[in-house]
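Homework help thread (please don't just give me the answer)

Our assignment gives two proteins as sequence + structure token strings and asks us to describe the second one. The first is just a warm-up. Here they are:
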Amino acid sequence: MPYPSPSRTATPWIAGSDAPEKPHLRLGFVPLSDCAPVVAAKLMDFGRKHGLSIELCRQPSWAAIRDKLLSGEIDAAHSLYGLVYGVQLGLGGPQADMAVLMTLNQNGQAVSLSNRLAQRLRQGESLSTVLAADTHRHVFAQTFPTGTHAMWLYYWLASQGIHPFNDVQSIVIPPPQMSDELARGRLDGFCAGEPWHAVAEAENVGQTVVTSGEIWPDHPEKVLACRRDFAALYPNTARALTMTLLEACRWLDTPDHRREAAGWLSGPGLIGRATSLIAPRLLGDYGGAPLSTSPRPVRFFAEGEVNFPYLSDGLWFLSQYRRWGMLRKPVDLPSMACSINQIALYREAAGALGIALPASDMRSSVLLDGKPWDGTNPEAYADSFAIRAR
């Protein structure tokens, strides 16, 4: 398959001591539509002008991403934002000092329910009423205990008056298994990335009822993650990799490029599902999904608005860990976010590419329940929810 040729012009960084210390990198990814930036970086060879060659390493689950990052089998990865923070805290697994180099995308995830539950919601019943009427304990799946999908699912359930631990059962399943488990009747719903919601609808086993962009408009989703010692030992490499992925994200901003990327992603070494299941939602088309509002499409660049590793984004995940009782010990949350999110490195990379930078390391948002979030007091924010761990 022919690919357009990116510019081969060397950047000012590729000279003498600024050259990457490690020119060949192994990048992990999980087969989801939003792995498109790492795939584009490889297939478009965006790393060449920054002195890098990239090897893609598909992984079956987020636990595998975590384990191979920690073992050094992969150098960096397309990762759940919350995976990085969970590993930093050692929540439910090994602990290690981690780094977020940049945000790879916003939006683009969803919650799907079984056809039976989705139909009742469409008829105007509330989710809490529907679940209370059933005699069995409902099971909802997400993809990693501290990951983004767990947090979107818990936040949405709580906004519907449902405690995600007391009222239902939450389990972890790798994304490619979600629709199959829904079809077998082992799940009542799941939260994951695309194209697995499109797959569930195409196979007539479930329906998308809310997108993550409705839960938190333009929320942070996947990040470019690595161990912190990797960023410290190879700072030129980390900067060059960030620049490479910024160029890939910028390339993905046009519809024609996204359509092309959908064709690549359908390959057996990547997602391995038909382009017709990947392309529409990658382009923001959710077809006849019974959504209450127009979905916010996945964003990869938006003139750099997407990619800055805001401290407030990382702090939001820490606030939710506190909310749900995952984080009970005293922790200096702002200091932790400052150590994980590599803002100085990102500023160098974006500045070298002429990409605009925000005036502040924090940003403000309002989530679907009307609660504002600006990162200034994560502890008070966690305690402000009526539904939380006690």
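The one we have to describe:
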Amino acid sequence: MTVFEKIYEIVKQIPEGKVATYGMIAQLAGNPRWARVVGYALHVNPEPGVIPCHRVVSRTGSLSPAFAFGGENRQKQLLLKEGVSFQEDDKVNLERCLWNGLKEGETP
């Protein structure tokens, strides 16, 4: 499995209404220094309807200024539609919406 394929498999696990950070995806993929690689992989997402790259945000909750599939506002629209909450500064409320990294049904 390639690094990009690992990244895509992890991103597919992020549940609706939750987000993960680039660094978190990098860590789960095997290398915490791959945050930029995660960004590159999501930018060339081969299956936008299947791999929910809109659920990946920066470590501060900021959205991508160049969301690859419809522009910056599209990412926010998709997240709002799923029930993701935002703070007044337009960043995702990570305290409420950060994914715990576990597969559905898995316990820590």
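TA reply:
I won't write it for you, but here's a hint about the kind of observation we're looking for: DSSP finds five helices and two strands in the chain.
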